[in-house]
Amino acid sequence: MAFLTMHYSAYLPWILALGQLALQAIYVMRALLRPHREPASRLAWVVVILVAPFIGVVAYVLFGETNVGRRRIARLRAALRRLPPLGSLTAGMVEAQVPEHYAGVFRVGHSISGHPPVGGNTAALMADSAAGIDSIVADIDGAKESVHLLFYIWLADGSGVKVAEAVKRAAARGVACRIMADDLGSRAFIRSVHWKEMEQAGAKMARALPIGFPLSRPFKGRIDMRNHRKIVVIDNRVTYCGSQNCADAAFAIKAKFAPWVDILVRLEGPVVRQNQHLFASDWMAHVNEDLSGLLRQPLDVPSAGFPAQVIGTGAAVRYSAMPEIFVSLMNAARRELVITTPYYVPDEPIQAALCSAARRGVATTVIFPKRNDSWIVAAASHSYYRELLDAGVRIHEYVGGLLHTKSLTVDGETALFGSANMDRRSFELNSENNILCYDEAFTCVLRERQQRYLDSSEEVRAAHVDGWNRRRRLWNNTIAMLGPVL
Q: Which of 230, 286, 382, 396 is catalytic?
C-alpha cells in the first residue's frame, strides 16, 4: 500500500499540470470562439489565461464574456414583443426634417433601437445639477397620471431625498409612480428607509439587474453588466436625459473628486414617447406589468420643434452600436467637433475616426477631467494622448471637479448627449440611453456649456506628454493594452 501511495504521489504533479493545461486550453478556446470580440481583446485574454493560469481562468469566468444572463435577455425580448410597434408610437407626428448630410447618422441610430427621428421637439438645458433636480421635483409635483424614474446611482443625499419625497407626494395623491434603480449603483439607497417609504406611499419599486447571492451571480451572468441609464418620464409629456444621476454634485460616495459636473436636458415632444418606450422595456423585463397601454395613448401634435431620436443600447443590442454612433458623428463633422467624456478607453475605430477628423481639417477638441475617479481609466486614457495630439486633436483637462458630462457637438448643428461614455464598459456591458438631435439653437446652447468647460480647463500639449518619464509611459501603455479585459 505504501508503495502504491508513493507511486501515485510521484505522478500527482504531472496530473495537476495536465489538468491545468487542459483547463487553460478550454478557456483559451472559449476566448477565441467568443463572438463579437475584437482580435486585440481575444489576444489579451489568451495572454492573461496563459501567463497567469489560475487567476486568468477565474478572471475570464467572472469578466471574460459579456453575458447578462439568458433569462434576463429572454425577459427583455419578451417585453419588447409585447410593446406596440415602434413605428406606431409617433404616427401622425411632425415629419423629421434632417439634412441629407446627417441622414446617415440618424439611420444608424434607427437601426440600433428602432426609433426613427421625429420632429416637433423642444429642449431646455438645466443650469446645473441642483437646478435639474429642482426641475424634476417640480414636474413630479405637477404630475397627474404617471411618474417614471430610472437611475443608475441614487443617493440618500439632499437631491436624492428631494426626489424621493416628491415621489411620495405624487403616489399619495394617486399618481402611478414606477421607480427603478440599478441594484449595484444604488445598492445603499435601495436598502434605505427612503426606498421603503416610497413603496409604502404607493409607488411601485423595482431593482434593475438584481445581484442576488454574489457567489452564484457569475454562473447566471456578469455582475458588472449594469443598467447605467438615467430616464425620467412624466405624464407621457416630459422627459429628461443626460449624464446626471439622482445625487448632489458633491457626490458623497466619491466626494474627493467633487463637484461632479453633469448636464441634464428637459425635453417635450414625440421624443418623450421614445424614452417612455425605453423605460417600459426595462420595467416590463423586471416587473409583471404591461405598460403597452401608455404607449398607445394619443399624443398632442406639436406645432414646431426640431428632429430628435432616442438611442438605447445594451445587452440585447449589437455590441458595436454605441461606437457606430460616435464614429458616424465624427465622420459627419466638416468644421468643428467638440467632445466631453470622463472615461476615454476607445476601440480602434473611434480613435481612428477622431484622428481622421482632425487630419482632414476639422477643429477637433476633446475635454477630459484632470482628476479621474478611476485610476485605471485615467492611465489608459493617457496612453492615447500622443496619437491624438500628433493628429491635431486638441486635448483639454477640466480642473473644476470631475467632468462627468457625456456630450458631442458637430458643426454647431447636431448634438448627442446622454449616459454613454467612450469606453468599453459603455460599449459592451452597460445599458445606456442617449438622444441625438439636429437643431442649431439647442446645439449652440450645448456648445456654450462645452465652452464653459474649456474655459475651466488646461490644454495638454505635446511637450507635456513628452515630459512623462519612461515608467509612466510604460504604466499607461500596459493598462491600455489590458483595456479589452478590464
A: 230
